[in-house]
Structures are given as structure tokens and as C-alpha cells.
Amino acid sequence: MPLWFLHAVGTGAGWLTFVASATYRRRLLANARQAGYTLASVRPAVGAAGRLVAESPRLWFGEPVPMHWDGEALITEALQRGRGIVFLTPHLGCFEATAQAYAARFGRITVLYRPARKPWLRELVDSARKRPNLATAPTTLAGVRQMLRALRAGEAVGLLPDQVPPQGLGEWAPFFGQPAYTMTLSARLAAQTGAAVLLAWGERLPGGRGYRIHLRQGPATQDAAALSATQVNAHMEALIRECPQQYLWGYARYKTPRTGS
Description:
There is one protein chain. By secondary structure, this protein is an alpha/beta fold. It contains nine helices and nine strands. It is globular. The chain starts with a helix and ends in a 19-residue tail after the last helix.
């Protein structure tokens, strides 16, 4: 199905969820207020959440969609160093598109993901996300080792650092002024490998015209070892403020981390 149609359906589904679920509505509004936004200023984010869901099967199973670039010279420079790239991408715009766009244009990338709890859904998502030059690594010790191997081979890896990690794998740090449990994996990966750190997000273009991948410079490699959870959150806040209308404000960012190894 064309993107414009899926986005139209998704917009309706996003608003239906917002109206029907009081819990989701309260969380979305509370998270936006915490960042200093009113509903009027982030109103498009309600529909954008639905578009995120509606477009996923198209990105997983359909033909490639148009991808445009903003700042791709940063990738070229980082690859020339030969130490790999750590991409940090918040729940902003279409984060599925960022990895697909990189794999199609620059080469192999390994993306960290949290496996679905239901076995049938886990198998579906795992197979759907695998594309040429695109590998996935689960949020396990084996997945972390897989990402380290990729970086040491000069490849790229991608993480969503505003995703709440399991207990023991993060630190409490302010996110828009409120403590949020934040992963420290990106700092460890960069420190152990000397990889470049880049910020990326995929802007959803209107009219189903595809996506624009925005690249921003992350902390310098020599500072990667000191990349604290607070600094990671500050970088993510800056990206989100570029386009708060496409951030997933309904995500439970301030929840207590789950226990697990």
C-alpha cells in the first residue's frame, strides 16, 4: 500500500487511541508538559504515533521507499576513520527508516532491539527487520558482543538511547528535567572501540513522499569514555526539539526499569 494511504489510516488510529485510552492520553500529555509543550504545540504527534504503527509493515515487507539525506558527509568522514559508528536515535519520526537508509547506501549496520515477548510476534519481527546489510542484535549479552564485533570490523551500530533498559544496565539521569532510567551502553561501546558517535533521526515527509534522514555530530571520540547518561539525554532532547511534532510522547519514558539480566 502507498505510504500516503497508510499514514492517513495511521493518523486516524492515533487519534482513536488518544481518545479511547485515558492512560495513554494522560501519559502523552504529561510527557509533553514535562518538556514544556502544550497539546496545541504537539498536536500532530498524536497522529504521528499512529503513522509509526501503520507504516511499519510497509517498511518491513514492502519495496524500498524514498530516502533523502541531511548531513551524510558526517557518515563518510566517520567511515574513513575505520573505527565504526555508533548511531544514537530517539523515538523520533521513523527510526526504522534510519537503519534501512544507511544499509542501502553505506553498508552493513547492526541495530539493537528488544525482542517481542510473544513467540509468534518475535519470529515475525525478527525476520521482517532483516534486509541486505541490516542485522539485528537482541538486548542480551550476546547482542552486545555482536555489536562490539561489528564496530571492531569498522561497521555501524544503532541504538535507541531513550528506551528504558533493564535494571542494572543504566543510570538515572534527567530527561527534560525529570529523572529517567537511561542506558549506558552507547558510552561503553564507543569507549571500547573508539567508534564515532553520530545522532540520527528519520523525518516523516508529508504526502507519503518518504523520509529525510537527519545526521548530527555526536561527542568527539576522545570524549566518548566520558559520555554520561546525562549527556546522552541532553543530545536526545536537542534532536527531539528539532521536531517535537513527530516524537513518540506516549512512550513510557519515566517508568521503573524491569528486572532481568
